[in-house]
Every structure is written in structure tokens, then in C-alpha cells.
From TrEMBL, chain A:
Protein name as annotated: Alpha-E domain-containing protein
Organism: Marinobacter halophilus
PANTHER family in the cross-refs: BLR5612 PROTEIN, SLL1039 PROTEIN
DUF403 domain mapped to chain residues: 1-308
InterPro entries per record: ATP-dep_Glu-Cys_Ligase-2 (IPR051680), DUF403 (IPR007296)
UniProtKB/TrEMBL annotation, chain B:
Protein name as annotated: Circularly permuted ATP-grasp type 2 domain-containing protein
Record Gene3D superfamilies: 3.30.1490.270, 3.40.50.11290
Every Circularly permuted ATP-grasp type domain range: 77-450
């Protein structure tokens, strides 16, 4: 397939995954801010800004972190690239470029999301209806996935699209886990009761709360949460599942001489597959995750070099 | 619903001159009369939502907020009887055959010029003539693989060819999507009438494009100027329907006079390019040096015979308005047949006698630029004010060779949903003719309708809409 098409499919899927995870994060943070002790509220609200790396840009436009400002900034603001509005627009732009590689169902699901997003931006979103908007984003994402699974040919177009999804998802899981972990460590020293909520927030942000209850019961502790989200092969957003998918997709992609991204992905996958919680605890979760993020970004870069490198 | 009857002296597609419903339209009229307004309004809204979601939008040049506008779609189909279509089809075949022969001739033997049918100046001094195409051997001697012929029906009931489009005719995706929309909204209508299918157009197009190369299994791509082009939706639509790659200039490169596309597994050679880019933008080395849309070296690869372009380069000379008056003569010259489809009488302002006539009768004539397209830069005499007439008078005197004039035609009308209800509006017809191993077309084409009362301009860039076009399989007895 065309390199430029592979690139657009990859990014289209990344953006859609990003829209979903950003909505989840924002949703959880707004809820957590209500539970949290008042002095920590700001800190709670800034989690999505930290995860998306937009804390500085936020203060270019707003003076104060409030729920409404956060909703405006992360959901609707078209002045910076990380709002859900712009993320969906970018997904749609990429989809338009590969319109020929998409089924009508997939294209329409994305185009419709964009049309409705424009509507939403026009009408505005407040704290009181934000939840329904987050639900809407999640539903659009499910719809896209359903349409993609149900109607796309299982060819390289599909493989590059899925690569985008799992690269983005692995990055998000690692980032959320890392930032929440740091906050939980801090809370442990200050308000012990807050620790429980921190870990609940991680699990909710990554749609893994029920999975945790299933696996470990009610006993929430840091290493079990980390184990679940890193090593557990049954949790859809765990690093284990993401890397397994990435490695296997790269095996399926038709390839010329380019082997480097395959090698990198298989090696990182083996590390996680045969890893255990003691090793992670020994190295320290933060250091482990920082290292992981560096390696996953390297893989993403290598995929673009191997298959989409014509673009310059 | 109440259907307004047409104005007198015009041909209406639904009513005959005594305001009786034409036999092929009885079913449609019955349906219209018995439909209630609310249901129709509801269906119109539904159609709008569906078109939006499909992303069938277009951009208008010179209009900033024009991005992503919908072309208005009218729910009342335009019906063509089986016998009318039969005549049209035979006439179109004949016309395209002659035009193809003409293009071959003016780039090889110049017989038609030598015979004095057309002056050398009009062919060789035409800005669209490409000397670089001389003596180039093209597979099957084919130049216009895909043609869109614009026809109108005059008050005498006959179809007249208004314009031949032999470069990058567009609109076929609307023909296909309009049909899909009608079948979705009104399945019951199709259950009761034998409407000839058009859905196989992409198959025929694919067949035509593969036949453009003599290779057994050529690699075919669609070349688009990109996402911001007004017809991008159509380019993507056709590529998808044919299962071939949609490429932009940046996806292609030329090495050793061969064209390759950049793929995830390395370079892949391309044999046929269905290009939707004008001649001048194809290759910055040969045409417009600032073109970002084309591929450097493409023209040399084409000249070497390593890639086929559909349509061929240099077709513009044959669909030029100053060559148009000669098409009936071409048919006689190359095929030794009488033209089946009529031409609109045309005054060529380059001839002093014609110019004089035009200047004297300006208020009753339509004046067009010989090179213009899309309804830009034309004068409709009967609708023009004195200022416009004066402007065109001085333009005509200054550069008479740039203009042609035609009588103001009474385009036929068809009932159309408008604000005031169901009223007659003017329309035209663009069938798409494919030339490969043989000449093929799907029944019908794109019907464009002028939505403003009395307006004769059907171009989508000027506020025209479209209708589904029904060719009936059999005439009713």
C-alpha cells in the first residue's frame, strides 16, 4: 500500500484513541476533584494536563484551573492541537486522505463524529452536561472500532490502523500510570485515605476498575495495580496486550527489507511477557515506566521510518 | 401534492404540450400527486443528513466559506424514455468515435486540415494544442477514454449537444450517489418501475482504464490534486469502488522514464494513471513549473510509452468551444455518416460576418468564452442589463476570436421541489461515455437543474442542483 496512506491510517487511529483516552481522563479528574480534599483539587484537575503535556499551553489561554476552563481547553478549544475538537478534526483529515482505503461505514463513523463535534463546540459544554459528552466520545470511539472490525479488509491498511491504536494506547497507559503513581506516593505521606482514590482513578481512567476487582478483589495496592496494567495479558489496555498486538501486527505487515521495527517490538514484548512484579518493584515503577515510554516512542519512530519513510 | 404546470412554449419532461402526463412519467406523477408534503419534507431532511454524513460535499472556487457545501439534491427524478435513450446512446457513440479520430488525426496525419474542413490556424494555433503529442503512439489510438457530453432538450423535443468534455469531466459520483439515495428513500418507487441500473459504472470504468494499456494486468491508479480539490470526494469514491490506489503527486516518482508509487514495501511501477489534474499541472518540468500537484518527469515517461494517461494530454483542442461547431463535419469526414445528435447553431466571432451578426443581435444571444468552463465569464443576452451588454460588446470587438455566440436555448423543464412547492425548473443532462476495447456507457447520466425560477445556469458552482436520472428499460405500451 501507499506509504502516505499507511501514515494517514496510523495517525487517524492514534488520534481517535487519543480522543477517547483524553475524554476518560478528563471525566475521572472532574469526578475525583469532587471527592478530593479541597486543597488537592487543583492538583487533581491538572492530571489530564500533565498526561497530555499541555499544562504550559493551558496557562497561555487561561489564568486559573477550574472545571469549566478545563472542559473548554481540553474538549473544545480549537487554538491548540490537543483538544478533543482538534484531535477529532485531525482524525477526520487523515481519514479523508485515505478515504479510498476505508469502508463507507468507517468513514461515515468518523465524519459523523466530526460533524457532531462541530455542533458540540458551537453549543458549548458545561460542567453539568460534560458527563454525557464524555459518554458520547466513548461511544463514537466504540462505533469506529466496531465499524473497523466489522467492515475492513484484513490487509495492511487494517494492520497500520491497529498499530496506531496500540502505540497510542501503550503510551497512554504508561503515562497515566506514571503520573498517578507519583501522586499516590505523595498522598501516602499526606492523606493516607487519598491513596485509595488515586488508584481507583488510575483504573477508571484506563477502563480497568472492574478487571481489577475481578482479579485481586478489594485490596487496592500500588504493585497490584501496576502488575495489572503492565503485565496482565487479559486486560485490554495493559502494556502486555498492547505490545503483543504491536509485535504480531508488525509480523503480519508486508515488509521489504525493513526489519528494525519488528526487532524492537519483539524485544520489548519479550521483556514484558517474561517480566514480573518483583523486577518492576526493584527497579522502581517510575524508572521502569520512563524507560518503557522511551522504548515505545522509539518503536513508533522506527515504524514510520520503515514503512512511511518516503515522506522525508 | 400539487404540481405546477410548465410555462407555454417550453418542453417539459413530465407534461406534454397539452399538459397531459407523458406516458413514461405516469407512475412518477401518480406517486407525486399522492405523496403528502410532510413525508416529502421529512425525506428531504433525511437526504441532507445522509449526504452530509457521506461527506459528499464540494468547494466553490473564489469563495472562502464555500468549503464543504452540499450540492442540492432534488427528490423528483428526471425520466428518459427507452427510445429517447436509444437515440442518445447511438448518437453519443458516433460523436465520441469521431472526436477520437479527430484527436488522432490532428496529432498525426492532419487529414482534416489538408481537406480544408477546419483551418490550420484553428487547430495548431489553439492554446490547447500540444505539439509534444505529435506522432506519439497511444494504445488503441485512444485519446478520450472518459468523456462527459452535456446535452439539453430544446422546445422542439430534440436533444442538442451543448458541450463535449474530453479532459477531466466530473460529476459521475453524483449520478451514482443520487441513485443510491433514491433507492434508500423511496424503494417502493423502484419496485413499480423498470429503471435501468447505473451501479455498474465503476466496473465499466475499471475495464476501460485497464484496456488503456496493452499490458495484460496493468497497475492503475487515480491521480487527484488532493483533499482540497472540489471533486476530491469523487476521486476517492471512484478509486474505492474500483479497488485501486488514490494517489497524489507526492506519492509518485519517475526513474528511468518509468513511473513508480511509493509503497510500504518499496517502489511499485504504475502503468495507467486516471488523472484528474489538468494537462498544465501534470509535470512541473513540462507544464506549469510551480505546480505542486504533478510529478516531475511524468511527461517524459508518457512520451516514452511507459505509462498511459487517461485522458490523453492535448484533448483540450477537441472540446474547445471554437472547435465545437465542426463536430458534425468531423462525423461526416471520418465516419461518412450523418450526425445523429444535433449541435447548437454557433456563431464564431472570429469570422467578421458572424461577429457582425452577434453584435447586432446581442440581447437575444448567449455569448461564451471559447476557453471558458463552469458557467464563468458568459453573457446571457435576454437576462443582461445594458451595462453588461456594453461590456461584452467591447470585449467582442477587442478579442473576437475568444468568443462564440449561440441562440438562447429554451432548456427543457422538469417538476422540482422548491420553496413555492413543486414547480418546473430548467435542466440539462451529462452522460458519461467510456472508450476502451469498445465504447460503453451506463443508461442516463447526471441531470443538473437550475433551482432559481427561470434560470438557465445549471452549474453547481452557480447554485445548481442535481436529480436522479431514470432511463426506463422499456417504453410503456
Amino acid at each position: 500500500m501507499l506509504s502516505s496512506a499507511a501514515s494517514s491510517l496510523f495517525w487517524m487511529a492514534r488520534y481517535l484513541e487519543r480522543a477517547e483516552s483524553q475524554a476518560r481522563l478528563l471525566d475521572v479528574s472532574l469526578t475525583m476533584a469532587l471527592i478530593d480534599v479541597p486543597e488537592d483539587r487543583i492538583e487533581q484537575l491538572s492530571v489530564p494536563l500533565l498526561v497530555s503535556g499541555t499544562r504550559e499551553i493551558f496557562f497561555d489561554y487561561y489564568t486559573e484551573i477550574t472545571p469549566q476552563n478545563l472542559i473548554n481547553f481540553l474538549l473544545l478549544d480549537s487554538r491548540h492541537p490537543t483538544s478533543v475538537f482538534n484531535i477529532i478534526q485531525n482524525a477526520r483529515d487523515n481519514a479523508l486522505h485515505v478515504r479510498g482505503n476505508l469502508s463507507s461505514d468507517v468513514w461515515e463513523s468518523i465524519n459523523q463524529a466530526w460533524l457532531e463535534m462541530r455542533e458540540l463546540q458551537h453549543r458549548g459544554v458545561t460542567e453539568s452536561n460534560a458527563s454525557s459528552v464524555f459518554d458520547w466520545v466513548r461511544e463514537r470511539s466504540h462505533l469506529f472500532r466496531g465499524a473497523a472490525y466489522g467492515t475492513l479488509l484484513r490487509n495492511d491498511a487494517f494492520h497500520f490502523l491497529r498499530l496506531g491504536t496500540f502505540i497510542e494506547r501503550a503510551e497512554t497507559t504508561a503515562r497515566v500510570l506514571d503520573i498517578r503513581h507519583v501522586m499516590a506516593m505523595k498522598a501516602e505521606q499526606e492523606h493516607a485515605t487519598q491513596v485509595f482514590f488515586e488508584w481507583t482513578a488510575v483504573l477508571h481512567s484506563l477502563a480497568a476498575f472492574e478487571a481489577y476487582q475481578n482479579t485481586y478483589g478489594h485490596n487496592l495496592d500500588a504493585m497490584s495495580v501496576a502488575e495489572l496494567l503492565i503485565l496482565e495479558p487479559a486486560v485490554p489496555r495493559s502494556l502486555h496486550v498492547c505490545l503483543g498486538e504491536i509485535a504480531s501486527l508488525l509480523e503480519q505487515v508486508e515488509s521489504g527489507e525493513a526489519q528494525e521495527s519488528r526487532r524492537l517490538a519483539s524485544s520489548l514484548y519479550a521483556n514484558i511477557r517474561f517480566g514480573n512484579r518483583d523486577y518492576i518493584a526493584e527497579r522502581g515503577l517510575h524508572i521502569y515506566l520512563v524507560d518503557f515510554l522511551e522504548r515505545i516512542q522509539h518503536i513508533a519512530g522506527q515504524i514510520q521510518k520503515d514503512y512511511m519513510g518516503w515522506q522525508g | 401534492m400539487l404540481i405546477q404546470t410548465p410555462a407555454e412554449g417550453l418542453y417539459d419532461e413530465l407534461f406534454d404540450e397539452n399538459n397531459r402526463v407523458r406516458p413514461q412519467c405516469r407512475m412518477l406523477e401518480h406517486w407525486l400527486v399522492n405523496s403528502n408534503e410532510e413525508l416529502i419534507a421529512e425525506k428531504r431532511r433525511e437526504a441532507n443528513v445522509l449526504f452530509q454524513r457521506l461527506g459528499i460535499t464540494f468547494n466553490v472556487y473564489g469563495e472562502d466559506q464555500g468549503a464543504d457545501r452540499l450540492i442540492p439534491f432534488d427528490l423528483i427524478p428526471r425520466v428518459i424514455s427507452a427510445s429517447d435513450w436509444h437515440t442518445l446512446q447511438t448518437g453519443l457513440r458516433q460523436r465520441i468515435q469521431a472526436l477520437n479520430r479527430f484527436l488522432y488525426d490532428i496529432y498525426h496525419d492532419y487529414d482534416i486540415v489538408k481537406a480544408g474542413v477546419i483551418s490550420a490556424e484553428q487547430v495548431f494555433a489553439n492554446p490547447q494544442y500540444q505539439p509534444g503529442m505529435q506522432n506519439l503512439k497511444l494504445p488503441r489510438n485512444l485519446y478520450c477514454h472518459i468523456a462527459g457530453i452535456d446535452l439539453i432538450r430544446h422546445s422542439d423535443g430534440n436533444f442538442y449537444v451543448l458541450e463535449d468534455n474530453l479532459r477531466c469531466p466530473s460529476g459521475v459520483s453524483y449520478m451514482l450517489e443520487n441513485r443510491r439515495m433514491m433507492m434508500r428513500l423511496f424503494p417502493e418507487l423502484f419496485a413499480h418501475s423498470a429503471v435501468a441500473p447505473v451501479e455498474h459504472y465503476p466496473n465499466l470504468l475499471g475495464e476501460t482504464l485497464r484496456a488503456a494499456s496493452l499490458k495484460p494486468d496493468p497497475t492503475v491508479v487515480v491521480l487527484t490534486p488532493g483533499r482540497f480539490n472540489s471533486a476530491y470526494f469523487e476521486h476517492a469514491f471512484l478509486a474505492r469502488q474500483m479497488g485501486i490506489e488514490l494517489v497524489e503527486g507526492a506519492d509518485l516518482f519517475v526513474a528511468q522514464n518509468k513511473v513508480y508509487m511509493k509503497t510500504t514495501t518499496g517502489p511499485q511501477q504504475v502503468d495507467v494513471i486516471y488523472r484528474r489534474i489538468d494537462d498544465d499541472f501534470l509535470d512541473p518540468l513540462a507544464g506549469n513549473p510551480d505546480s505542486m500537484l504533478g510529478v516531475a518527469g511524468l511527461y517524459a515517461a508518457y512520451r516514452t510509452g511507459n505509462v498511459v494517461l487517461t485522458n490523453a494530454v492535448g484533448n483540450g483542442v477537441a472540446d474547445d468551444k471554437s472547435i465545437y461547431p465542426y463536430v458534425p463535419d468531423m462525423i461526416r469526414f471520418y465516419l461518412d455518416e450523418e450526425p445523429i445528435l444535433k449541435n447548437v447553431p454557433t456563431w464564431q466571432c472570429r469570422n467578421p460576418k458572424d461577429l457582425q451578426y452577434v453584435l447586432e443581435h446581442l440581447p437575444e444571444l448567449v455569448v461564451k468564452e471559447a476557453q471558458g468552463a463552469g458557467g464563468y465569464g458568459m453573457l446571457i443576452g435576454p437576462k443582461a442589463c445594458k451595462k453588461e451588454l456594453d461590456l461584452f460588446r467591447s470585449l467582442l470587438k477587442a478579442r473576437p476570436q475568444d468568443y462564440i455566440a449561440q441562440p438562447t436555448l429554451s432548456l427543457s423543464t422538469c417538476p422540482t421541489f422548491v420553496e413555492e412547492g413543486v414547480a418546473p425548473r430548467h435542466l440539462d443532462l451529462r452522460p458519461f461515455v467510456l472508450s476502451g476495447k469498445k465504447i460503453q456507457m451506463v443508461p442516463g447520466g447526471l441531470t443538473r437543474v437550475a433551482l432559481e425560477k427561470g434560470s438557465l445556469v445549471v452549474n453547481s458552482s452557480q447554485g445548481g442542483g442535481t436529480k436522479d436520472t431514470w432511463v426506463l428499460e422499456d417504453d410503456p405500451c
